Amino acid sequence: MTLAVPLSPGAVALAKETLATKSKSFALASHLLPPAHRDEMAVLYAWCRHVDDAIDLAPRAERPAALARLRAELDDVYAGAPGSPILSAFADLVRARRIPRAYPEELLAGMEMDVLRARYLTLADLELYCFRVAGVVGLMACHVLGVSEPGALRNAAHLGIAMQLTNVCRDVEEDLADGRVYLPSEMLGVSLDRAPAEGSPARTAVQRTVATLLTLADRYYRSADRGLPALGLRPALGIRVARHVYAAIGAILRRRAFDPFRGRAFVPLLHKLALVLLAVVLTLAELPARLLRRRAIVTPDRVLGFPHDVLPV
């Protein structure tokens, strides 16, 4: 068992508040983690959210400057001289869990993609973006949760990619309002500048593309499932809950004929609780395999890169 990282109680409280207000799905899953992992994952989430909000909430003309500030903050984190409580807690976390700087740098490279471009041409472009903004979050979580198996690291990156693909499909209308289209234009085959009329060729193209991306997301989710036995029992349960809640968003879109313009898809509380029970059953069903599996709980030394370490799914 890994020792808990000593974190500032104030920073942890702030991180948990951020988690509770910004992501109910991840907040629910975090309650199933052991207390030490719960605090550390909250700090990791809070830093990632800080990065995301710094770009998304800034006026478009100010986003390059916001990105420059984030890079300066990351310099301070790895130099041991961070400023805010969340940055200080994140610095303690990266030092204690030996999180390679390459991972948060990749996340900032994903933010740079948001700053520099509003359209994605190919599926490969989108997969790179998903790896940078979400796949590396799974890799950083491996350091927090003590995963060391190289194959399981790849599975963790796949879970992040699957979740981000789900986000892309759910948030088409919201992103369009911000001038962004993540659906690859070579897959769409049409120009998309506003919400297309129902029944129009453009609306059909969006639905077809969403269907294709959700099918790809399912492949990434199935890969992620294969890595869960590399986790301890409670961490596996918490991560599995988050995985199934996110996948349920895709299921809602399927029931809506893959139409993202019919209101924001969300998973009701009772459905989430049912998914918790499902996750318990699936995790307990793994017990025989866990007893036969030799799992080393150490800090991973290998740094995964994209695409050679991650693709094909």
Model description:
This protein has 313 residues and is mainly α. It has 2 domains: 9-114, Farnesyl Diphosphate Synthase (Orthogonal Bundle), CATH 1.10.600; 117-291, Farnesyl Diphosphate Synthase. Helix content is 68%, strand content 0%. It is built from 14 helices and no strands. It has helices at 9-22, 24-30, 35-56, 63-79, 85-96, 102-116, 123-145, 150-170, 172-177, 185-188, 201-227, 233-255, 269-285, 287-292. The chain is globular, with a radius of gyration of 19 Å. The model has no long low-confidence stretch (mean pLDDT 93).
What's the helix and strand layout?
Elements (H helix, E strand, L loop, with lengths): L8 H14 L1 H7 L4 H22 L6 H17 L5 H12 L5 H15 L6 H23 L4 H21 L1 H6 L7 H4 L12 H27 L5 H23 L13 H17 L1 H6 L21
Which key features would you list for this structure?
0% strand; Farnesyl Diphosphate Synthase; mainly alpha; 313 residues; globular; 2 domains
Determine Rg (CA atoms, Å).
19 Å
CATH class of the largest domain: Mainly Alpha
Based on Cα principal axes, name the global outline.
globular
> What is the first-to-last residue Cα distance?
31 Å
Supply the number of helical segments.
Answer: 14
Sheet having the most strands: none
Mean pLDDT: 93
CATH architecture of the largest domain: Orthogonal Bundle
Strand content is under 5%
CATH fold field value of the largest domain: Farnesyl Diphosphate Synthase
| Helix and strand composition category | mainly alpha
Strand segment tally: 0
Topology as H/E string?
HHHHHHHHHHHHHH
The CATH superfamily of the largest domain is identified as Farnesyl Diphosphate Synthase
Uncertain regions spanning at least 5 consecutive residues: none
Number of separate structural domains: 2
Helix fraction by DSSP (H/I, runs of at least 4)? 55-70%
